[in-house]
């Protein structure tokens, strides 16, 4: 018995199985690494370039959930057959993960050719796949790396291809990225930020800042949204748009979230009791059933009333694992915590999620507000959302309000809540408390007069 992509020499059955993916018959990750090792060795004296690539199926899990695991396996086999048929006599394709395939092109010498070959693979996989009497369509993302010198090992080449794949998937579906020096520097910076963030979380150095949420008619503050802020001794101020995704990707988001919620709850205990605290959960936290327990434990430890807490989640977070998210949401609502759907209108299944989940509040994304004064479609969309929420009995807050004219227009439409730079930028706990105290004194002076 011989391996699918062997050297032509007979091998034992046990060796063959160790190098073969049992589902598709392709080589597995061991076969792939062995092939690259051999090619590097063959070109030791004359290190001519070659291409390593990793292909990941986009959105395979939802397809698997929809059609079932048996059908999912059949799709994986069809993908393997198409990829194998696309290889020339020099090239190799293997299955190295659940929905990941890897290819080796010994005769592809340039980044341009690698990208073109990869786009061809994506196009081949885009044709419908038969699943019984139904069909399914797939897209794929590809990351490639190039071998240029004998200093590069198999592990380095595969790691670079994985980094390129990560960048491809972050930029959208059906993309191809070939590893570059700039990517290498970006990867090193991410690692530096990750290590510094781990230290900061352990030392309790990430702080909550608070942005006011107001009643649009009276401009009275009704609550604050919590936003994480971090300044590192070496890196300086690191934007949340940078460190939050890193925390999610590197598994730090849980401890980070617990730290910020604890500090936020401790600060909010000093606020007037009618003000609520709004706190964001990341998509990865909605697939972890410990999330609710951590939140409740934090509230218990800080003595903060659950009925004053509002949790914000996004449509993206719901889509990853709807069953898990629903269980977490219901457990939180059971103790009086309110749940808001954030960034409404930017996801892929907004109306369906409103029917399936019980939300207390909806937050209209800032993208609609920014153009409300000069774009009729945005105006009509906001009006429709407000009418829908009224029918569903949901509160509404519109985000990103920066101009008085925008606020006035929203009041005309009947929007009750607003948030944005017009009403205040995020500030730390001390500044927030000082602002509330000044506001309270001002209210007393008005009453006295």
From TrEMBL:
<dbReference type="InterPro" id="IPR029787">
    <property type="entry name" value="Nucleotide_cyclase"/>
</dbReference>
<dbReference type="Pfam" id="PF00990">
    <property type="entry name" value="GGDEF"/>
</dbReference>
<protein>
    <submittedName>
        <fullName>GGDEF-domain containing protein</fullName>
    </submittedName>
</protein>
<dbReference type="InterPro" id="IPR043128">
    <property type="entry name" value="Rev_trsase/Diguanyl_cyclase"/>
</dbReference>
<dbReference type="InterPro" id="IPR000160">
    <property type="entry name" value="GGDEF_dom"/>
</dbReference>
<dbReference type="InterPro" id="IPR001633">
    <property type="entry name" value="EAL_dom"/>
</dbReference>
<dbReference type="InterPro" id="IPR035919">
    <property type="entry name" value="EAL_sf"/>
</dbReference>
<dbReference type="GO" id="GO:0071111">
    <property type="term" value="F:cyclic-guanylate-specific phosphodiesterase activity"/>
</dbReference>
<dbReference type="Pfam" id="PF00563">
    <property type="entry name" value="EAL"/>
</dbReference>
<feature type="domain" description="GGDEF">
    <location>
        <begin position="48"/>
        <end position="181"/>
    </location>
</feature>
<dbReference type="InterPro" id="IPR050706">
    <property type="entry name" value="Cyclic-di-GMP_PDE-like"/>
</dbReference>
<feature type="domain" description="EAL">
    <location>
        <begin position="190"/>
        <end position="440"/>
    </location>
</feature>
């Amino acid at each position: 018995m011989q391996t699918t992509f062997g050297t032509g020499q007979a091998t034992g059955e046990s060796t063959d199985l160790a190098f073969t993916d049992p589902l598709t018959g392709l080589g597995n990750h061991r076969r792939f690494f062995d092939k690259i090792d051999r090619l590097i060795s063959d070109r030791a004296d004359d290190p001519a370039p070659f291409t390593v690539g990793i292909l990941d199926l986009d959105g395979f899990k939802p397809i698997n959930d929809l059609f079932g695991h048996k059908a999912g396996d059949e799709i994986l086999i069809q993908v393997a057959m198409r990829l194998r048929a696309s290889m020339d006599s020099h090239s190799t394709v293997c299955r190295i993960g659940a929905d990941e395939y890897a290819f080796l092109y010994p005769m592809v010498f340039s980044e341009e050719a690698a990208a073109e070959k990869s786009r061809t693979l994506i196009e081949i996989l885009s044709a419908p796949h038969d699943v019984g009497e139904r069909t399914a369509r797939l897209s794929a993302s590809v990351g490639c790396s190039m071998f240029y010198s004998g200093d590069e090992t198999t592990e380095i080449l595969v790691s670079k291809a994985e980094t390129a794949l990560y960048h491809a998937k972050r930029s959208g579906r059906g993309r191809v990225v070939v590893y570059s020096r700039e990517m290498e520097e970006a990867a090193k910076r991410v690692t530096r930020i990750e290590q510094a963030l781990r230290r900061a979380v352990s030392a309790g150095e990430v702080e909550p800042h608070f942005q006011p949420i107001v009643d649009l008619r009276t401009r009275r503050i009704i609550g604050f949204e919590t936003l994480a802020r971090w300044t590192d001794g070496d890196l300086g101020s690191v934007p949340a748009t940078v460190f939050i995704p890193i925390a999610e990707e590197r598994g730090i988001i849980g401890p980070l979230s617990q730290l910020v919620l604890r500090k936020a709850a401790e600060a909010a205990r000093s606020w007037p009791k009618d003000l609520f605290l709004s706190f964001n959960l990341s998509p990865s936290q909605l697939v972890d059933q410990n999330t609710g327990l951590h939140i409740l434990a934090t509230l218990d430890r800080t003595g903060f009333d659950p009925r004053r807490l509002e949790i914000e989640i996004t449509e993206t977070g719901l889509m990853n694992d709807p069953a898990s998210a629903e269980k977490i949401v219901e457990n939180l609502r059971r103790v009086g915590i309110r749940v808001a759907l954030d960034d409404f209108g930017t996801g892929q299944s907004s109306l369906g999620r409103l029917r399936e989940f019980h939300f207390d509040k909806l937050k209209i994304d800032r993208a609609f507000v920014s153009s409300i004064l000069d774009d009729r479609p945005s105006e009509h969309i906001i009006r429709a959302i407000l009418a829908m929420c009224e029918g569903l009995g949901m509160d509404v807050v519109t985000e990103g309000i920066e101009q008085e004219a925008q606020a006035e227009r929203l009041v005309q439409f009947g929007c009750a809540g607003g948030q944005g730079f017009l009403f205040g930028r995020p500030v730390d706990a001390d500044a927030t408390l000082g602002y509330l105290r000044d506001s309270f004194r001002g209210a007393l002076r008005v009453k006295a007069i």
